[in-house]
Amino acid sequence: LSLGNMTRLDSITAVPIDKIRDLANSLAGKFIDLRWAMFTLPAEYDRNLLSKMYSLSEWNRTFKRCPRCASFLSRCAAKTSAACGYCQSVFYPPISPAIICLVTNRENSHALLVHLPRSPNTVYTLIAGYVQNGESLVEAVRREVGEEAGVDCDEIVQLNMSQSWPIQNNSIMCAFRAVADPKQKLDICKNELLAANWFSREEVQWAFDNTTRNLNHINESIPPKFQFIYVPPYGALSNRMIKHWLGEKP
Q1: Which of the residues in the chain have pLDDT under 50?
Q2: How many Å apart are CA 49 and CA 39, to the nearest integer?
Q3: What pLDDT score does 1 carry?
Q4: Average pLDDT taken over every residue of the chain
Q5: Residue 7: burial class (beta carbons within 10 Å; 0-12, 13-18, 19+)
Q6: What is the end-to-end Cα distance of the chain in Å, rounded?
Q7: Which domains, ranges and CATH numbers included, belong to the chain?
Q8: Is the full-model pTM beyond 0.90?
């Protein structure tokens, strides 16, 4: 479901739906998975709106009592908040900062891509993770690359790209670039990744073009495991970062 090119909205209301099949049939449409919708809605405005609707709906559904005194909370129309009438505390929807990083070699000819357990077996993406308490975004990049792929990186630079991501924890993903030596042995964290590898610019370009051409086949499982055939779809921040890198000269 695309929300169209809406540029001015007086109000938008998101409500949970129990009988989604009945609603879909009445509209001659169908409901799709939230993750897939975030990946494939054409307009960034639509994706951000969907992210806001889902994250606020989940917050309102799960955040019922005051964490300080356990009294029931009242919803406030202003500033999207919840107030406790007993201890007067006010709470706002939490946002979990996360990083996503495109790691290249110093010659800028190869990129380090990873395969996640939740991804189709033909999709490789970028290293990403949540920022921990007490660390900067740059420190989070260095730690995540080391934890997930087992390599040290430097020349960490933040890009002017970000994405709201509502799934699991309401996150804001911040994009980074980093450099690492491919001679380092890859030592993946098997709790986080199923595979990691360095790919040439030509290999990444082929997979990127294949994703654009064959988007509807991206969720198909093709043996053998962990073939590099696709990158994440165009709605993913990783897709934009990879596209930006492919437009550079080595």
Answers
A1: 1-10
A2: 13
A3: 37
A4: 89
A5: exposed
A6: 39
A7: 20-91 (no CATH), 100-246 (3.90.79.10)
A8: no
